[in-house]
Amino acid sequence: MMTSVDTELIRVLGDPLRLKIVTLLARETLCTTHLVEETGAKQTNLSNHLRVLREAGVVETEPCGRFTYYRLRPDVITQLADQFADLAASARTAAENKRACP
After folding, report:
1. Would you say 17 and 53 are in contact if contact means Cβ atoms under 8 Å apart?
2. Confidence (pLDDT) at 53
3. Which pLDDT tens digit goes with each residue over 28-84?
4. What is the mean pLDDT of residues 78-98?
5. Which of 60, 90, 98, 101 could form a disulfide with 3 if both were Cys (CB 3.0 to 4.6 A apart)?
6. What sign does the dihedral 44-46-65-34 (CA atoms) show?
7. DSSP string, 33-82
8. What is the edge-to-edge ordering of all strands in the sheet holding 30-31?
9. Mean pLDDT throughout 10-20?
């Protein structure tokens, strides 16, 4: 049973704005303009966060004319959820695994 969680992905999703972006993209595919409107972030700041999410494999892009659309990769979120589920399952049995003091 796996009991470790992808710490890099947790770091990436740990930023409040990036988590907001992921939450928005879980509902629909959006372009940068939409994301600026929804988050209130400056375009340059948002673009930097989108780059981090893209490099981490959390989102993918789709060019559409002069716009770039972003969509969430649900398999990455599922993988992270599975890691947390494994961690929770391990924690359920942790009470039975009591290490003796020296």
Report:
1. no
2. 97
3. 999 999 999 999 999 999 999 999 999 999 999 999 999 999 999 999 999 989 988
4. 85
5. 90
6. negative
7. HHHHHHH---HHHHHHHHHHHHHTTSEEEEEETTEEEEEE-HHHHHHHHH
8. 30-31, 67-72, 59-64
9. 94
Range 22-28, long-range pairs (CB < 8 A, 24+ positions): 22/53, 22/58, 22/59, 22/72, 22/77, 25/59, 25/70, 25/71, 25/72, 26/72, 26/74, 26/77
pTM of the model: 0.83
Position 6, amino acid: D
Phi and psi torsions of 79, nearest 5°: -60, -45
Report d(CA 27, CA 100) in Å as an integer: 49
pLDDT score at 5: 72
Residues 6+ apart with CB under 8 A from 35: 21, 24, 41, 46, 50, 70
Is residue 1's pLDDT more than 60? no
Angstrom distance (rounded) from CA 98 to CA 95: 6
